[in-house]
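User: Predict the full complex structure for these chains.
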Amino acid sequence: MLYREAGDFKKTYAEDNQTFPIKFDRWRYYAVLLVAFLVVPFMVNDYWLNAVLLPFLIYAIAAIGLNILVGYCGQVSLGTGGFMAVGAYAVYKLMTSFPEVSLFIHVILAGAITAVVGVLFGLPSLRIKGFYLAVATLAAQFFLVWLFNKVPWFYNYSASGQINAPDRTLFGQLISGPSADAWAKYMFCLVFTVVVAIVARNLTRGAQGRQWMAIRDMDIAAEIIGVDPLKAKLTAFAVSSFFIGISGALFFSIYLGAVEVGEVFGITKSFLVLFMIIIGGLGSIFGSFAGAAFLVLMPVFLKNVLVGGLGWPTDLAAHLEFMIVGALIVTFLILEPHGLAQLWRVAKEKLRLWPFPH
Amino acid sequence: MSDTFIYAIEVFINGLMAGVLYALVALGFVLIYKASGIFNYAQGVMALFAAMTLVGIMEGQVPFSHLINATFGTSIHHFGWHVPAVLAIIFTMGVMILLAWAVNHFIMRHLVNQEPIILFMATIGLAYFMEGFGDLMWGADIKKLDIGLPQGLNTWIDDTTYQAFGYGFFIDNLDIVAAIVAALLVTVLVIFSQYTKQGRAMRAVADDHQAALSVGVSLNFIWVMVWSVAGFVALVAGIMWGAKSGVQFSLSLIALKALPVLMLGGFTSIPGAIVGGLIIGVGEKLFEFFVGPMLGGATENWFAYVLALIFLVFRPQGLFGEKIIERV
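Assistant: Here is the predicted structure of the two-chain assembly.
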């Protein structure tokens, strides 16, 4: 009944090539956008914003970025935290050096700076593969965090070594700093998330995405049929770092407001984002959203049930959360290596035939 | 002889000692990787878990006491007895064997024939699970591990070097013990894998799973055994690190330090793990000594990774690794 392609005739190439070829899917997508842009901003309050919505939107950007590198191009990276830190510190330096320029432009520039750093650390990927590369990206993680800790220029010589986001406005509305309205922060992040998702979706189904996937599936074979591994790998690193940089910039300037690099952008952040794309589904944009939503919502849910409902101490809940995340990772890898995205695909297939499966 | 040179020698020797400890962790990785092709990220957490279990058994802690207290409103924490170190180590080994069986039975058996990277991620999941499990079982506080190993300044070396150079070297007794234990451990492992029936079976599995199966080697048994041996290595590493810096969460991060050691030495080579460990240990201490002050210190955080990264660009298979041959 749902998801029927029958009766949906494509008359032009443009119609045939659209992102959501099935009519129902397309309307669902518009409905989600409509709710996100027109309903949620009027209902959002500070608790929901800080506990669920902002982390979800920002982690979704990071997960899309990492998914391009790991899921589409097959280059495993454990340096996400470090690259997010680059984005955060870049936007901080830009915000304090050029206060008259809009934060919107700063965030994009911060992404571009991160892309350059990402390409730099992506260079060894031409020689190093698999695990070796995963460990090599740890060099980026630890080196970058150390750099932002030790060089006072990056945190403007502040005594605490922290960076604090100054108040900035966009169209006359305060969007960063502690006194900004919830809906303004939400809208700012939402715009970025939606644009990033659309760009990523179209990149990955075009020629560039196919080159990445060819490299992922077998790099030597890809090279023989004419994919330039240098170009493909470095563009993957650049695009991925660009998105991760944007997410780092938003994480600092909109979400947290104050950041101490070792705590916020440590190795655990790298693993968290990696888990998001494993649970969500490698090589899927929807999977990035699903994984981000899952890992953002689960701790909130557990905390409410265990601490709020059963009255357990918070540290027990935190230990249990570790166990559940670990067990889930393993379960997903065993039962459904393609993650939540695959479950969604299977559900869609079933819905197309429902209620007459034969 | 100039002062700097003498200090550098002291730093060098301390680096060697630290390297031995890295090599201990790296050994566990190599064992599992050779036998099953699994890159076991959880090795560091296994060391932490082993050390926690050892302390818990020695002090007679009630496992899951926090959980029990929170659920039933009781307030139990200790059985009130103390177990001698040797007995506790044997018990802990039993727990590690049980763990090896569980890992094989519930995780690895279901992931046969998967890509290496999937297996790697599964062990990351395992690491997270065990971290939470260990904390839930024994509590997350920092514990002191004392099984009677000698600690503190070695006065004999201090005296001798003072007479020779006019400056006494500071070398910890514990580091010396660790070096001796590591040497013993490697000897035992080499003898085990070269001269015993099980060791030979293990090498056969490492060489070719299917061929080993076809001549009647039980893969399940070998894998449980390999994970148990890795658990044993983790226990030794856990004891050494735990005695040095207390049993706490940061212990699991030494696994991350072992990764560049492995890359430098090559994933498949036991001597590589040791040489790599020594190079990293000495390298990071000397770098911190000579270059660190210019850069603002704490270079130990990243030096190992950057060294390994640069090294790999020139020799992608590491020092002693098998040459990587790629075919389409």
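Chain B touches chain A through 52 residues (CB under 8 Å).
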